[in-house]
Amino acid sequence: MAASRARAAHSPEDACTAEPFVPRHADLAALRVAAAGCRGCPPHRDATQTVFGAGDAGARVMLVGERPGDQEDRQGRPFVGPAGKLLDRALAEAGVDPGEAYVTNAVKHFEFTRSEPRKRRIHKPPGLRGMSACGPWPAAEPALVEPELIVVFGATAGKALLGSSFRVTEVRGTVLEHEIHGRPERLVPTVHPSSVLRAEDREGAYRGLVSDLGVAARALA
User: Fold this and answer.
1) 109-141 pLDDT, tens per residue?
2) CA 137, CA 218: separation in Å to the nearest integer?
3) pLDDT in tens, 35-48
4) Which of 13, 23, 121, 127 could make an S-S bridge to 39, C-beta 3.0–4.6 Å?
5) CA 11, 15, 16, 18: dihedral to nearest 10 degrees?
6) Which pTM does this prediction carry?
């Protein structure tokens, strides 16, 4: 009995990290399969499924968002909800082909609250513990895709890739050079598309997003 309790206390899930679930020397397809069985953080219990990255494995640009929303959780793909539709429009307007990007999130499971049972699921931003637990996945993806540029959407993705001191308002629309898990990367931070949908001046916020994505397009030219 004591031995079984000891094993439970040291289970991968209780460690609150995805590290035990990330296979070494795997290709992107194997990584996706492994992520589907990840139990490295508590939100996996309520989420419908793991939402892994999607797109061209040889993409020149990687788009990194926060965490899946309600529609992403149901469909199993990143950026398929209202924010994703706005992002596709902004990318095209800025000169970045959405179909040629690899799209992912810093956190792979949907976490939510409900005001009442059976009511609409309300997106819950991840805390530092959740970002840290999921960190091995967004670390492994760029190493396999090897993008020329990473576009970082919002504070959560920025902190996951660049550290807790990241402030999107200070560096948005600029090209940064940073080493991420031993690999030098170029990154362009900007706001998350969902913030545009919540903005009082939605048109102004949208124009700002397009301007930042234009920086990314020129960096890829």
Assistant:
1) 988 776 666 677 776 777 677 778 888 998 899
2) 28
3) 999 988 888 888 88
4) 13
5) -70
6) 0.86
